[in-house]
Predict the 3D structure of the following.
Amino acid sequence: MATSVPQTYQALNGKTAHLGRHAIVIGASMGGLLAARALADYYDEVTLIDRDALPLAYEPRKGVPQGRHSHGLLARGREVLDQLFPGFSAELVAEGAVPGDVGDAVLWFNHGYYLHNVHSDLSGLAISRPMLECCVRRRLLQLPNVRIREGYSVLGLICDRDRNRVTGVQVRARNGADDVETISSDLVVDASGRGSRSPSWLEALGYAKPREEQIKVNISYKTQLYRRRPEDLHGKLGAIIAACRPHWRHGVILAQEGERWTVSLGGYFDDEAPDDEIGFVEFAKSLPTPELFDVIKDAEPLGPILTYQFSTNQRRRYEELSRFPEGFIVYGDALCTFNPIYGQGMTVACTEALTLVSAWRKVRTELHRVFSARRVD
Ligand SMILES: Cc1cc2nc3c(=O)[nH]c(=O)nc-3n(C[C@H](O)[C@H](O)[C@H](O)COP(=O)(O)OP(=O)(O)OC[C@H]3O[C@@H](n4cnc5c(N)ncnc54)[C@H](O)[C@@H]3O)c2cc1C
């Protein structure tokens, strides 16, 4: 890994307000890192807590199993990351991420039709998910008031005597130590992902659980890495083949750092790509367009074929609850999880950092209601 480039620390909205002494963020994946970046302008100290040991190298980790699968960063996500961390894209490109015009360098096949490739002002970055997360974490930790406690699981929330305000969390080290530790804070942000336990934690404090909106998709993902050759895909950086008649199968191929392709194939409702080499390539042949098959039929596979099952899009409607404690927010996938084929979860986590800042400008109480409903300018 190259050494990081020092950058000027800039407040998001040009000036800071002091909202409190200490903020805690549960989860140090993309959502948590971005929330922490927003909080750093407003709190003296920000502590991220993650149950994983966080790798220094660009490697997948247990707490983010989707990190092994194809991740594309939309142009808006890249734009916000550059706003939050000036010079970030250039830093990534210097380390091997592949920049490209999303309108021109990527082949799009939607609803049974190719989109015209045209130059756009939408600039994307082809990069593996672990590299992106690692680089965001590295930049975040350059802020003097942010730190991470890795290897700690958050067990629950603590609150004041009247149970009106969350005042911290209880944690336990994952290395076997039995002691439960209490960490106090003025704000707790839950960015612990789709499996968030906030509904149960709130219930334990006497609050109702939020209504959950779900859309069942039962989508399967099988992912394989391949060596990338310059002539592949006629020099384009990716192809997104959205499902359409007759098979409703989808495929994604995206360039990554290290001259690699990441290829994900899948279908809906129990239609899965096989996890053997020959079957995987045959499945690619059944996609509505041939580009993906043409690349992988004689490309060199790197590593095993990996599986991910995604059952439902899900949104937890915290803003509808008539009672909700102050000093607590739910963020990122913990709040709302999207079908991965939209490739938007990380970008939503980026824009939520800006939403949080706008929400603070608007209100000081019932922050969760404004933030969760995204009713801010
Ligand atoms: C197969 C797949 C492909 C995807 N592809 C894309 C894509 O192309 N583009 C895109 O933008 N998005 C994509 N996404 C979505 C993206 O991965 C997420 O939106 C993104 O990671 C933000 O999630 P998060 O940080 O909120 O939660 P997560 O990434 O799930 O992270 C949760 C973190 O919380 C930690 N944690 C959990 N519980 C605790 C606890 N009790 N105590 C301490 N720590 C805890 C975990 O260790 C983890 O680090 C994809 C998702 C999937 C499943």
Remarks:
- Residues 74 and 344 are 7 Å apart (CA to CA).
- DSSP finds nine helices and 18 strands in the chain.
- Residues 26-32, 49-52, 63-64, 66, 69, 71-72, 153-154, 191-194, 221, 308, 310, 332-334, 340, 343-347, 349 surround flavin-adenine dinucleotide (CB under 6 Å).
